[in-house]
Structure formats: C-alpha cells, structure tokens
Amino acid sequence: MDFTILIPIALGWVGGLIINYASDVLPRTRRFTQPACANCQNHFSWADYLTLRACRSCGFMRSLRTWLVQILTTASFAYFWLFPSRLLGTPLDMIVLTYFGVIVVIDLEHRLILHPTSLFGAILGLITGTYIYSKSSGPLLGGGMSLLGGLFGFGVMFLFYQLGSVVARYRARKLQAAGHADDGEEALGGGDVYLAGVLGLTLGWPLILYGLMYGILIGGVVAVLTVIGPVIGRRLADGALMTFIPYGPSLIVGSLYALFFL
Fold first, then answer.
1. Residues 182-214: pLDDT tens digits?
2. Where in the chain are the domains?
3. Which candidate, 86, 212, 220, 222, has a CA 20 to 30 Å from the CA of 1?
4. Rounded to whole angstroms, how far apart are CA atoms 123 and 109?
5. What is the pLDDT of residue 229?
6. pLDDT at 179
7. Percent of the chain having pLDDT more than 70?
8. Which are the contacts of 223, defined by CB distance < 8 A and separation ≥ 6?
C-alpha cells in the first residue's frame, strides 16, 4: 500500500474544516470569529469544533452538511493527488477547490456571495489565471489574459443581472397583486456578478467562455426543474416562477469542469 495517499486525506480533512468554519461564521458575523452552536448560539471550544463534537450546552449534533463537506473535500483532494489537473497541479488544485467549496456552501444555505470572499477570490483568481497562461505566454501576458477573462466574466453576468432586475420587478408586481409584500428577492444577485468576475480571473481568456457556457447551461437546467417540479406535483406553476435559485453553485460547477476536465 502506498501510504503517501494519507497526505491528501489529511489535507482534505483540513480543507473540509476550513470550508465548514468559513461557512459557519462568515454569513453570521462577516469575519473570522469563534464558531457557535447553530441551535443555542453558545460558542464551541476550538477543540470541540475541530473534532466535530456535539454542542456541550444543548447536545445539538453537527449538521449533515458538516459531514458531507468533510467527506467530499477529502475525496476530492485524494482524487486530485492521484490525478493532478493539467492546468494547475496539486497544490493550486487544493486551494481552488477549498475556495470554491466555501462559495458553494454559503450560497446554497444563505443565498449570499459575500464581499470578503469575492475579494479573496479575485486575488486567488489573478494568481491562478496568471499561472495558467504564463506557462505558455510569460507572466506579463498571462496576467493580461487573466484580467481579460475577469472583465469578460463580469461584463456578461452584469448584462444578465440587468435582465434579472426586470424579472424581479415583474415578480414584485405579482406578489403585490396577490396581496403579499415585496421580499426584495433578486433573480440574479450582485454577488453573482462579482463571482463571475472572479471566475473569469481564475480561468482567464478564452477559458472563461467555456466556464460561463457550462455554468449557464447547468443553471438553466436547475431552473427548468424548479419550474416543472410543481407542475408534476400538481401545484401551480406560477408559484415556481416566484422562486429564485442560488446561481453561484452552477457557475462554480461549470468553471470546475472547464478548469479541471477540459
């Protein structure tokens, strides 16, 4: 048995802890603080939190998401240790996967893409994109290709954001006509626009074309399933049209495919 596989397993477990920690504290406090129980809000000791123990105050068990993140991150790290991506290599693979994991979990749970994560992602994306293209074109041109990808990703999603604003206004009128208050939901949030810019920096030009194409297709499939689900379940389709889905995970999955498997 090759015991070196224990290295990515250990690193993957740490990566999962980072994803879980950021997903637990950033939406609540917008900064890195001591984690608290989701049930009683009492703080965990660091030893209890890092060993995934239940809350000592109320006995509340750690969530299913916590364990799924740990398992999936560990498995992903092991995979890319054995089969490094063509563009990045193992160390950057692991860093990018951890960052993407934070974005996906927070967006799925809170419909948020936070400005601090976008700022960190922009720095990481510029480093990653420059590295990808500098291998064939040198660092100066590589940085330019990364910046071009960032501008393209941001610009395209900004146009979709403007279109989404029209949909949001239509939705607000429908809610008001039904006697409900406008809840301020957006079809596409501003955070998705910044995320597209981050992904553009990461993938660079022209790889961002493929990342956006796959992300938009995946998001479209999810949206269609969201609409037809109530119809299959014999509920009014109009209710489905009033539901917006987090779009960030679709963009991430599309970019993952473009970055690691094209």
1. 555 565 778 899 999 999 999 999 999 999 999
2. 1-113, 120-262
3. 86
4. 25
5. 57
6. 66
7. 85
8. 245
d(C-alpha 64, C-alpha 46), whole Å: 20
Q: Which of 23, 199, 31, 41 is nearest to 110 (CA)?
A: 23
Select from 87, 227, 241, 250 the least CA-distant residue to 157. Answer: 250
Buried b (16+ CB within 10 A) or exposed e, 32-69: eeebbbeeeeeebeeebbeeeeebeeeeeebeeebeeb
User: 């364990």: which residue's tokens?
Assistant: 67
Q: Which DSSP string do the residues of 20-66 spell out, in sequence order?
A: HHHHHHHHHHSS----B-TTT-PBPPHHHHHTTPPPTTT-PPPPHHH
CA 223 to chain centre: 17
Q: Identify the pLDDT of residue 237.
A: 46
- Phi and psi based region of residue 3 (left: phi greater than 0; alpha: psi -120 to 50; beta: remaining): alpha
Alpha-carbon distances, residue 83 vs 2, 16, 90, 93 (angstroms)? 15, 19, 8, 10
Higher pLDDT, 231 or 218: 218
Query: Does residue 150 carry a pLDDT above 70?
Result: yes
**Measured between alpha carbons, how far is 12 from 75 in angstroms, rounded to an integer?**
7
Q: Please give the Cα distance from 30 to 57 (Å, whole number).
A: 24
Number of residues that make up the chain: 262
Angle among Cα 72, 75, 77 to the nearest 5 degrees reads 110
**Distance between CA atoms of residues 216 and 250, nearest Å:** 7
Q: What mean pLDDT is reported for the chain?
A: 87
